[in-house]
Specification:
The structure holds 2 protein chains of 2 kinds. Chain A is mainly β. Helix content of chain A is 0%, strand content 58%. Chain A starts with a strand and ends with a strand. In chain A, the strands form 2 sheets. In chain A, strands 2, 4, 5, 6, 9, 10 and 11 form a 7-stranded mixed β-sheet that branches. A 4-stranded antiparallel β-sheet of chain A has the order 1-3-8-7, with no helix packed on it. In chain B, strands 2, 4, 5, 9, 10 and 11 form a 6-stranded mixed β-sheet that branches. Chain B has a 5-stranded antiparallel β-sheet with strand order 1-3-8-7-6, with no helix packed on it. Classes of the chains: A mainly beta, B mainly beta. At the A-B interface, strand 10 of A face strand 5 and strand 9 of B.
Protein backbone atom coordinates (compact mmCIF):
# COMPACT_ATOMS: atom_id res chain seq x y z
CA UNK A 1 0.00 0.00 0.00
CA UNK A 2 1.01 3.60 -0.50
CA UNK A 3 2.40 5.73 2.32
CA UNK A 4 3.28 9.39 2.39
CA UNK A 5 5.68 10.90 4.91
CA UNK A 6 6.37 14.48 5.85
CA UNK A 7 8.87 15.99 8.23
CA UNK A 8 9.28 17.71 10.47
CA UNK A 9 5.86 17.53 12.14
CA UNK A 10 6.23 20.94 13.77
CA UNK A 11 8.66 23.78 13.22
CA UNK A 12 9.18 27.18 14.82
CA UNK A 13 11.40 29.50 12.83
CA UNK A 14 12.38 33.18 13.10
CA UNK A 15 11.48 35.66 10.38
CA UNK A 16 14.17 35.74 7.71
CA UNK A 17 15.40 32.22 8.30
CA UNK A 18 15.46 29.53 5.57
CA UNK A 19 13.01 26.64 5.29
CA UNK A 20 13.14 23.12 3.98
CA UNK A 21 10.21 20.71 4.28
CA UNK A 22 10.44 17.24 2.86
CA UNK A 23 7.83 14.84 1.59
CA UNK A 24 8.36 11.27 0.39
CA UNK A 25 5.95 8.71 -0.99
CA UNK A 26 6.30 4.94 -0.81
CA UNK A 27 4.52 2.19 -2.66
CA UNK A 28 3.84 3.95 -5.95
CA UNK A 29 5.74 5.18 -8.99
CA UNK A 30 5.39 8.40 -11.00
CA UNK A 31 2.91 10.01 -8.63
CA UNK A 32 1.63 13.53 -9.06
CA UNK A 33 2.78 15.49 -6.01
CA UNK A 34 1.30 18.60 -4.42
CA UNK A 35 2.16 21.14 -1.73
CA UNK A 36 -0.72 22.91 0.01
CA UNK A 37 -0.89 25.46 2.79
CA UNK A 38 -3.80 25.77 5.17
CA UNK A 39 -4.06 28.90 7.31
CA UNK A 40 -5.93 28.60 10.60
CA UNK A 41 -9.65 28.09 9.95
CA UNK A 42 -9.21 28.41 6.20
CA UNK A 43 -9.39 26.17 3.16
CA UNK A 44 -6.52 24.54 1.34
CA UNK A 45 -4.37 26.70 -0.92
CA UNK A 46 -2.43 24.87 -3.62
CA UNK A 47 1.15 26.14 -3.72
CA UNK A 48 2.93 23.79 -6.15
CA UNK A 49 2.32 20.60 -8.04
CA UNK A 50 4.59 18.27 -9.95
CA UNK A 51 3.87 15.65 -12.61
CA UNK A 52 7.46 14.36 -12.76
CA UNK A 53 11.09 14.81 -11.73
CA UNK A 54 12.16 18.41 -12.18
CA UNK A 55 8.68 19.48 -13.34
CA UNK A 56 7.18 22.06 -10.99
CA UNK A 57 4.14 24.26 -11.52
CA UNK A 58 3.57 27.20 -9.20
CA UNK A 59 0.04 28.30 -8.41
CA UNK A 60 0.69 31.49 -6.47
CA UNK A 61 3.54 34.01 -6.49
CA UNK A 62 5.39 33.91 -3.19
CA UNK A 63 8.76 33.54 -1.56
CA UNK A 64 8.49 29.75 -1.55
CA UNK A 65 9.91 27.31 -4.06
CA UNK A 66 9.60 23.58 -4.65
CA UNK A 67 11.81 20.93 -6.11
CA UNK A 68 11.42 17.29 -7.06
CA UNK A 69 14.89 15.77 -7.17
CA UNK A 70 13.62 12.17 -7.21
CA UNK A 71 10.42 10.51 -8.39
CA UNK A 72 8.94 10.16 -4.93
CA UNK A 73 10.51 13.13 -3.16
CA UNK A 74 9.09 16.63 -3.04
CA UNK A 75 10.75 19.51 -1.18
CA UNK A 76 9.34 22.89 -0.21
CA UNK A 77 11.88 25.64 0.46
CA UNK A 78 12.26 29.28 1.28
CA UNK A 79 15.35 31.45 1.51
CA UNK A 80 13.78 33.94 3.93
CA UNK A 81 10.60 33.23 5.85
CA UNK A 82 7.91 35.85 6.39
CA UNK A 83 5.40 36.01 9.22
CA UNK A 84 2.67 35.28 6.67
CA UNK A 85 4.31 31.93 5.87
CA UNK A 86 2.97 30.47 9.11
CA UNK A 87 0.46 27.71 8.56
CA UNK A 88 -0.14 24.01 8.15
CA UNK A 89 1.77 22.62 5.15
CA UNK A 90 0.41 19.51 3.54
CA UNK A 91 1.96 17.31 0.91
CA UNK A 92 -0.31 15.11 -1.19
CA UNK A 93 0.06 12.53 -3.91
CA UNK A 94 -2.26 11.20 -6.59
CA UNK A 95 -2.13 8.85 -9.50
CA UNK A 96 -1.53 10.08 -13.03
CA UNK A 97 -5.18 10.35 -14.07
CA UNK A 98 -6.38 13.91 -13.79
CA UNK A 99 -9.36 12.95 -11.64
CA UNK A 100 -7.42 10.66 -9.30
CA UNK A 101 -7.96 11.13 -5.59
CA UNK A 102 -5.35 13.09 -3.68
CA UNK A 103 -4.01 11.51 -0.49
CA UNK A 104 -2.38 13.67 2.13
CA UNK A 105 0.65 13.33 4.35
CA UNK A 106 0.44 14.13 8.08
CA UNK A 107 1.46 17.76 7.57
CA UNK A 108 3.97 20.19 9.03
CA UNK A 109 2.81 22.96 11.34
CA UNK A 110 5.07 25.96 10.75
CA UNK A 111 5.14 28.96 13.06
CA UNK A 112 7.19 31.96 12.01
CA UNK A 113 7.98 34.35 14.85
CA UNK B 1 -14.59 33.24 -10.65
CA UNK B 2 -14.71 29.79 -9.15
CA UNK B 3 -16.49 29.31 -5.89
CA UNK B 4 -17.46 26.56 -3.49
CA UNK B 5 -19.85 27.31 -0.65
CA UNK B 6 -20.30 25.27 2.51
CA UNK B 7 -21.74 26.25 5.88
CA UNK B 8 -19.01 27.32 8.26
CA UNK B 9 -20.22 25.33 11.23
CA UNK B 10 -22.95 22.84 12.13
CA UNK B 11 -23.97 21.19 15.38
CA UNK B 12 -25.66 17.81 15.72
CA UNK B 13 -26.44 15.27 18.43
CA UNK B 14 -24.79 11.90 18.89
CA UNK B 15 -26.84 9.17 17.22
CA UNK B 16 -28.63 11.60 14.91
CA UNK B 17 -28.30 12.30 11.18
CA UNK B 18 -26.71 15.41 9.67
CA UNK B 19 -26.52 16.68 6.10
CA UNK B 20 -23.68 18.98 5.04
CA UNK B 21 -24.36 20.88 1.84
CA UNK B 22 -21.93 22.09 -0.79
CA UNK B 23 -22.76 24.29 -3.78
CA UNK B 24 -20.27 25.09 -6.47
CA UNK B 25 -19.78 27.44 -9.41
CA UNK B 26 -16.78 26.30 -11.42
CA UNK B 27 -15.55 26.43 -14.98
CA UNK B 28 -16.61 22.93 -15.91
CA UNK B 29 -16.94 19.87 -13.73
CA UNK B 30 -14.96 16.65 -13.59
CA UNK B 31 -15.87 15.30 -10.19
CA UNK B 32 -16.52 16.22 -6.58
CA UNK B 33 -14.67 15.00 -3.50
CA UNK B 34 -15.48 15.00 0.20
CA UNK B 35 -12.71 14.85 2.78
CA UNK B 36 -12.77 14.64 6.57
CA UNK B 37 -10.24 16.63 8.59
CA UNK B 38 -9.87 16.24 12.34
CA UNK B 39 -8.41 19.22 14.19
CA UNK B 40 -4.65 19.40 13.72
CA UNK B 41 -4.59 16.51 11.27
CA UNK B 42 -4.45 16.06 7.52
CA UNK B 43 -7.59 15.61 5.39
CA UNK B 44 -8.62 12.03 4.67
CA UNK B 45 -10.60 10.99 1.61
CA UNK B 46 -14.27 10.10 2.15
CA UNK B 47 -16.03 9.98 -1.21
CA UNK B 48 -15.99 10.86 -4.90
CA UNK B 49 -18.99 11.65 -7.11
CA UNK B 50 -18.85 12.27 -10.84
CA UNK B 51 -22.34 11.15 -11.88
CA UNK B 52 -25.66 12.33 -10.46
CA UNK B 53 -27.04 10.33 -7.60
CA UNK B 54 -26.20 8.90 -4.24
CA UNK B 55 -23.03 7.01 -3.29
CA UNK B 56 -23.24 5.12 -0.01
CA UNK B 57 -20.31 4.01 2.13
CA UNK B 58 -21.38 2.66 5.49
CA UNK B 59 -22.65 5.49 7.68
CA UNK B 60 -21.60 8.11 5.12
CA UNK B 61 -23.38 8.91 1.84
CA UNK B 62 -22.67 11.59 -0.75
CA UNK B 63 -25.12 12.97 -3.28
CA UNK B 64 -24.50 14.94 -6.45
CA UNK B 65 -26.70 17.00 -8.76
CA UNK B 66 -24.61 18.41 -11.59
CA UNK B 67 -27.48 20.45 -13.06
CA UNK B 68 -27.90 22.25 -9.72
CA UNK B 69 -24.19 22.50 -8.88
CA UNK B 70 -24.99 20.86 -5.58
CA UNK B 71 -23.76 18.06 -3.38
CA UNK B 72 -24.36 16.91 0.15
CA UNK B 73 -22.65 14.60 2.59
CA UNK B 74 -25.00 12.65 4.82
CA UNK B 75 -23.71 11.22 8.08
CA UNK B 76 -25.92 8.74 9.91
CA UNK B 77 -25.76 7.39 13.47
CA UNK B 78 -23.41 10.16 14.47
CA UNK B 79 -20.58 9.33 16.80
CA UNK B 80 -18.41 11.68 18.84
CA UNK B 81 -15.44 10.80 16.61
CA UNK B 82 -17.31 12.35 13.66
CA UNK B 83 -16.54 15.78 15.13
CA UNK B 84 -14.30 17.22 12.43
CA UNK B 85 -14.24 19.57 9.48
CA UNK B 86 -15.67 18.29 6.19
CA UNK B 87 -14.14 19.66 3.01
CA UNK B 88 -15.84 19.74 -0.37
CA UNK B 89 -13.61 19.98 -3.47
CA UNK B 90 -14.46 20.11 -7.19
CA UNK B 91 -12.29 19.25 -10.18
CA UNK B 92 -12.87 21.86 -12.88
CA UNK B 93 -12.52 21.67 -16.66
CA UNK B 94 -8.74 22.17 -16.38
CA UNK B 95 -8.59 19.34 -13.84
CA UNK B 96 -7.67 21.78 -11.10
CA UNK B 97 -9.05 20.87 -7.69
CA UNK B 98 -11.00 23.77 -6.18
CA UNK B 99 -11.45 23.56 -2.41
CA UNK B 100 -14.20 24.83 -0.17
CA UNK B 101 -13.29 26.32 3.20
CA UNK B 102 -14.84 23.37 5.02
CA UNK B 103 -17.69 22.82 7.46
CA UNK B 104 -16.83 22.31 11.11
CA UNK B 105 -19.18 19.69 12.55
CA UNK B 106 -19.66 19.66 16.32
CA UNK B 107 -21.26 16.57 17.85
CA UNK B 108 -22.92 16.93 21.24
CA UNK B 109 -23.75 13.99 23.52
Amino acid sequence: SQTIHQWPATLVQPVGSPLSLECTVEGTSNPNLYWYRQAAGRGLQLLFYSVGIGQISSEVPQNLSASRPQDRQFILSSKKLLLSDSGFYLCAWSGLAETDTQYFGPGTRLTVL
Amino acid sequence: GQNIDQPTEMTATEGAIVQINCTYQTSGFNGLFWYQQHAGEAPTFLSYNVLDGLEEKGRFSSFLSRSKGYSYLLLKELQMKDSASYLCAVTDSNYQLIWGAGTKLIIKP
